[in-house]
Every structure is written in structure tokens, then in C-alpha cells.
Amino acid sequence: MKQPPLSLYIHLPWCVRKCPYCDFNSHKAGDAAPKKRYIKALLRDLAGEADRADGRPVETVFMGGGTPSLFTPGEIQELLKGVRALFPLGENAEVTMEANPGTVECGSPAGYRDAGVNRLSIGAQSFDDELLSKLGRIHSSADVTRAVREAQDSGFDNINIDLMHGLPGQTVEMALTDLRSAIELEPAHMSWYQLTLEPNTVFYARPPANLPDNDLAFEIQDRGQALLADHGYVQYEISAYARNGQRCQHNVNYWLFGDYLAAGAGAHGKLSSAAGVHRYRKPANPLQYMIAQEDPATSIDLKDLNRSDLMLEFMLNALRLNEGFAEDLFVERTGLSVEELEQATTGVRRKELLERNAMGIWRPTDLGTRFLNDLQSEFIVEEA
Q1: What is the pLDDT of residues 119-168, one digit of tens each?
Q2: Average pLDDT across the chain, whole number
Q3: What are the tens digits of pLDDT across the range 180-237?
Q4: Alpha helices in the chain (DSSP H)
Q5: Peptide bond into 66 cis (omega under 30)
Q6: Confidence of residue 4 (pLDDT cuts 50, 70, 90)
Q7: What are the tens digits of pLDDT across the range 276-289?
Q8: Cα–Cα distance between 124 and 337 in angstroms, integer?
Q9: Taking a C-beta distance cutoff of 8 angstroms, is the pair 334, 342 a contact?
């Protein structure tokens, strides 16, 4: 099996406060988050990941969380200096850091840029202060504008804004007003996605009142996509929109079933080799993770993906892309055959959820895109 492109994900797990909708591995920082100890643990972890990479070049780096901007520019610089010492990383490789508007003051955007970050992903979620309060956010709409402008003034020309829709009590016009506010800031990229109630969150246990129904949510999405298109934002994935071709290369590698290394509490990795494809993950609790990294005998749990796993995981990712995927790439990344692909998709093609063109490109139909979760669920194989 040919090895696909390789990315690196680094998880920084602390937040000022846990948002009620968030199901990511994030933890309230408090006054004494052991950041220096955590950086040291990450550098040990990265050394092990470098051994695992075995000299393969890393094409993108993504620091997610949690809230990475709780770490100072000096701490991020120490981390990225370690990355560049351990991995073949191109001078212009995409290096993304997530930042929340309420915590960018831990360091100036210029400081993060000097540290080696060249793409900033700012978690706005809304420009409506009342909705931000309902979402448990610690920033205001003015903070978002300030953070984006300061980043642009510091030389960042590759900025993503995270924005949610389908919020409690949100109307179509409210959602469009949010989008217009983001568009005025002229980010290179927009991640615009619907609020979902994920298990193990406060919102799942106690859903907020007045969430938009399915018809209203679809109208918001339909009109919002038209507005984004009118301003040059091209949708290339179910919730991702880019201007001037500035797609998130790190996420594209995920969606095309590329490989990625994992460092940090709860981080997940995927690697391909001649023996097949396997996944692994690190301990989720930050303290347990740091203890594990301080023990040279620590090993990681590997899971070899079987043929059903490979089919499901490829489809969960690639079907999110508007352009779909080439069947040659499917064979290359999974080791499965075109015949297996055709057999697995018989039902969804009959339901007109998925189509293949004469060039061997597979993509969801308009119906499949609208009911993407239903399409993806068709590939789940129940264990006997």
C-alpha cells in the first residue's frame, strides 16, 4: 500500500471554561495548569512520533484544543522548534493554531506568527452577544473583530473563522447577519457548521430551548451558502468554505484518508504501511498523559483496521467533500478493490444518494448531500 501524505496533530487540552456544547477533550485550566510540564511531555511524545514517522516528511501541523492560545508565544515557539528539529517540515508548510478571541491576549498575534504559526483559526461561533452568552463563550463580538484585525495587522493572510448556525432562537436573518459580520472581516476561510447536541455535553443532557427545526435549519443553510458564494467563498466540504483556493490542507488530508501523527492528551493518529492501516490514541486525561510520557516504558494501543473499518472510515471522511473522490485514490488509500467499492455502494446508489461519473469520480448526489448522515450510516456494518 502506497503511503499517503503525512500530517501532525498536537492537542493542547485546556480552556478557560468548558462550553456546554463542546464534546472535545478539553479541561478547565484553573489558575495552575501545568503548561511547562505539558510542553516537556509533548516534546517527549513528539520524539516517539518521529520514530514512528521513520523519516517521512510532515506536510501540515495543526495545534488544536482546548484553547492553544492559552499558551504563550514563547511556549508555542518552544514546541514548534522541537517539531522542526524532529521532522522534515517544509519552510512553507501550513502550521495552524486554534485561538479563541477571549484568550488571544495571552500573546499577541505577532508573537504567534514569530513562533512559526502561519494559519490562525479563530473560534468566533457568533457575532451576536446574546447568543454568545447562551453558548457559554467568554468573548464578545467586538473581541472577535479585534482578534481578526490584530491578526491581519500582524501579517496573517491565512485566517479561518469558526461560525455556528442553528443556535437557540436563531432566525434566518440572524444567521445571515452573523455571516455578513464574518464576511466583512475578509478571512481566507470560513468553517460554518450547525450546532449539534453531542453526547456527554451539557446541551445534550439539558437541550436549550427554541432550537431551529429541520425546515428552518435547512433554509438557514441554503441561504447562507448562497451568501457565501456571492462573496467568493467556495464550498469544498460540508462545512468548509475558502476564498482564492485557500483550503485547509490539514483537514483535506484527513478527508482524503491521509496519515497523521498524534501528540497530546487524547490525540488520535492513523498510519499506513505495507501491513495495512492502523489507528492509535494517547491517554485523554492531561495528568495521565504527562505521567505516561515521563515513563520510558509506556506503549500505545494500536488498532488494525479491518476491511469493514476501512470502508466506513474512508466514506465518513471522503463523502464530506463536494468534489467527492477518485476510485483510484480509494484503492490507493484503503487497499480495497473497485469491486468491493461497487458492492458496498449498491444500496446507496439504488437510493440515489451516491453517484459515479464516467471518469471514476464518486460523490454524493444533491439528495445524498442533504442527508449525509443517512448516507454515511449505510456503511456501518453491525458486528455479529
Answers
A1: 999 999 999 999 999 999 989 999 999 999 999 999 999 999 999 999 99
A2: 93
A3: 999 999 999 999 999 999 998 999 999 999 999 999 999 999 999 999 999 999 999 9
A4: 35-53, 73-86, 109-115, 129-134, 141-153, 172-184, 202-205, 214-230, 249-255, 286-293, 307-318, 327-334, 338-344, 346-350, 366-370, 372-377
A5: yes
A6: very high
A7: 999 999 999 999 99
A8: 42
A9: no
Alpha-carbon distances, residue 23 vs 18, 208, 347, 360 (angstroms): 9, 16, 32, 37
Q: Cell numbers 498510519 correspond to what residue?
A: 271
d(Cα 10, Cα 251) in Å, to the nearest integer? 14
**pLDDT at residue 243 above 70?**
yes
What distances in angstroms separate CA 233 from CA 217, 297, 336, one per listed residue?
A: 20, 49, 35
What local confidence, expressed as pLDDT, does residue 384 receive? 43
> How far apart are the C-alpha atoms of 198 and 341, rounded to whole Å?
30
Residues whose CB is less than 8 angstroms from the CB of residue 32 and which lie 6 or more positions away in sequence, other chains included: none
Strand 268-273: give its sheet, edge to edge. Answer: 234-237, 240-242, 189-194, 159-165, 119-125, 89-99, 58-65, 6-12, 259-263, 268-273, 276-281, 301-304
CA distance linking residue 296 with residue 366, whole number of Å: 51
Angle at 118 between CA 163 and CA 91, to 5 degrees: 145
Does the pTM surpass 0.90? The reply is: yes
Q: How far apart are CA 333 and CA 30, in angstroms?
A: 42
How many CA within 13 A on the CB side of residue 5? 17
Rounded to whole angstroms, the Cα distance separating 80 from 95 reads: 9
Q: Is pLDDT of 116 > 60? A: yes
Quick one: residue 30, left, alpha or beta (phi over 0 = left, psi -120 to 50 = alpha)?
A: left
Q: Which of 160, 158, 151, 159 is nearest to 111 (CA)?
A: 151
Residue 23: what pLDDT? 85
**Residue in 222, 218, 215, 248 with CA at minimum distance from that of residue 321:** 248
Closest alpha carbon to 176 in 220, 241, 230, 238: 220
Q: What is the pLDDT of residue 301?
A: 79
Cell numbers given for 376: 454515511
The domains found in the chain, sorted by start residue, are 6-254 (3.20.20.70), 306-384 (1.10.10.920)
Residues 6+ apart with CB under 8 A from 384: none
